[in-house]
Design a protein that fits this description.
Oligomer: homodimer
CATH architecture of chain A: 3-Layer(aba) Sandwich
Number of strands of chain A: 14
Structural class of chain A: alpha/beta
Largest sheet of chain A: 9 strands, mixed
CATH superfamily of chain A: Ribokinase
Shape of chain A: globular
Distance between the termini of chain A: 24 Å
Number of domains of chain A: 1
Strand content of chain A: 15-25%
CATH topology of chain A: UDP-N-acetylmuramoyl-L-alanine:D-glutamate ligase
CATH class of chain A: Alpha Beta
Number of helices of chain A: 12
Radius of gyration of chain A: 18 Å
Chain lengths: 333, 333
């Protein structure tokens, strides 16, 4: 096996975040399920945006946030995702490259605009996302560069890729190339509603060995196995995947492998401002720990640290050096 | 004089802010004057942006920030400024309208893109701005709606309007309409370098009565009268304008009128994150106090309060309800 050029390559829906503070009444009035990610069409995007307050914008996308976090920690990272060649697509391309990520996916020259997520942040810090996929729907198997995938130690895929019709083919193609090259493939289940849409297919990916490592939060795990019994769900997860990592908000995370289960506490935070990106940055820290050979517990602590940073400010991208933060906290970088 | 429909109408360069954290070395390497606003052309914009780190974007523009703050405090506010009909122009239009501001300036259908400012925020919280005016250069006297100006109790203009060639004609036209309707005209000197470019013209505006109220910070005041002697400069300011308000960062502000000088302390802040918008929001609080008939000292305290809110987070628009903040601090709203 050749030495990897990238530690982690992420594939996901490239989404620009439009973040706004809103109260619970706004969610109720617009029929939004708090804490979830709903797919919206252009008409609903316009209607939500019309009613929304003044916003802050920044690049987002689940796997992209994770990959930016990994680069910020000091690892070699690459991203594959589709924007359009429009103003927002150019902001997006700037931000991910400026974070030190290799990003070479050709932007769409026509079709829908760069995808956007209208993110309502309630006073408790919880985020509720309404995503217009836009150009992210144009991600095709042809966008997967076999040499780049084969040169990445871990390929990280988001469950959200199951939403655009052709992206799942790109997903499966990337997984096969990675495995043929002796690499690892990780999947995040992304969102409980997303799991509800693709439960059977996600289980097939896990049981069939298309993915080796699965990230989920409690709600996603419960949705996957259709149970509220955490221990029962965790047991099933251990049967279905080599390595499963379940995040539990302030209760920390659980890392489950064939060898056993390790619980890692959450990192203390003074005030939760916006949970957007919490799971994404947890995955960043954990994957970074894995590629550094840090062991499951230290990887979990790196994940908890990165998640803690991102929930203390608005937006899903780190605003401080995670590398320095890890060093200050005696974690391996 | 008919009752005003708007308490304050602002006219300014409509600018979208691209904010990034940077160290002093970045400023030095790019020949930037820390704390100032430099005008840049498209080539330099591209060169700075290429070297910049990952950014957060949000609507800005000096007078626009002020007007949003005034609306946030609960007054009736309107804005005149030029964007293009592009993606960023649509974000801009959304944000200012969503803040409760009447904004009806027709966007440019061709020509340069919506203006952007690349704002470098150093670890001490100071901001250094590099502004590509873009579509803001297309603001014309024809964009001034005489009825709307005449229906506004205070017309607020930014010195930055002197940069685009035709905007100053719009400025002078608006001032004449306002005065003919018995309204007040306020000016912010905007930036010490801007004052350096237009010193003589700004003094003419003040001495000739085109403006009634002038906002400046210490650096702008020093630049206007080409002196480092604050008291001497303040004395000249009192001669040259009916009402002068000078902000002095952590030293608070000084309100100078023919009757005398009132000093108002700054509002305590726990941590300065980003000073972008500090002067703009000070003006918002002060003008709001004026339209509510609060007296100079209370107006100064409202200004200090609004400035304190905006420097404790990234970006130049308020992230909390200034009205509630003022109420909690026993200030008149």
């Amino acid at each position: 096996m050749a030495e990897a050029k990238y530690d982690v390559l992420g594939i996901g829906n490239a989404i620009f975040d439009v973040l706004v503070q809103a109260d619970e009444g706004f969610l109720a009035a617009h029929g939004m399920a708090k804490g979830g990610m709903a797919l919206i069409d252009e008409a609903r995007a316009e209607s939500i945006y019309r009613d929304m307050g003044p916003a802050t914008e920044m690049s987002g996308g689940s796997a992209a946030n994770t990959i930016v976090g990994i680069a910020n920690l000091g690892a070699r990272a690459a991203y594959v995702g589709k924007v359009r060649d429009d103003q927002i697509g150019r902001l997006y391309t700037h931000d991910i490259r400026a974070a030190g990520v290799a990003f070479e996916t050709k932007p769409a020259a026509d079709g829908p605009a760069t995808g956007c997520s209208y993110i309502l942040v309630t006073p408790d810090g919880e985020r509720t996302m309404n995503t217009y996929l836009g150009a992210a729907q144009e991600l095709m198997p042809a966008d997967i560069d076999a040499a780049q995938i084969a040169a990445s130690a871990i390929v990280y895929l988001e469950g959200y890729l199951w939403d655009p019709a052709s992206a799942k083919e790109a997903f499966v193609k990337a997984s096969k190339i990675a495995h043929d090259a002796g690499r690892q493939v990780a999947l995040t289940l992304s969102d409980a509603f997303c799991v509800g849409r693709y439960r059977g297919e996600f289980l097939d990916l896990m049981r069939g060995g298309t993915v080796d490592l699965v990230f989920a939060n409690e709600a996603e795990l419960g949705s996957l196995y259709e149970t509220a019994d955490f221990d029962a769900a965790l047991k099933q997860l251990r049967n279905d995947t080599k390595l499963g990592v379940v995040t539990r908000s302030e209760k920390g995370c659980v890392v489950a492998s064939k060898e056993g289960v390790v619980a890692v506490p959450a990192f203390p935070v003074s005030k939760i401002v916006d949970t957007t990106g919490a799971g994404d940055l947890f995955a960043a820290g954990f994957l970074f720990g894995l590629v550094r050979g840090a062991g499951h517990e230290a990887a979990g602590r790196l994940g908890a640290l990165a998640a803690a940073e991102v929930i203390q400010h608005i937006g899903a991208r780190p605003q401080t050096s995670l590398k320095e933060l890890a060093q200050e906290n005696g974690l391996p970088v």
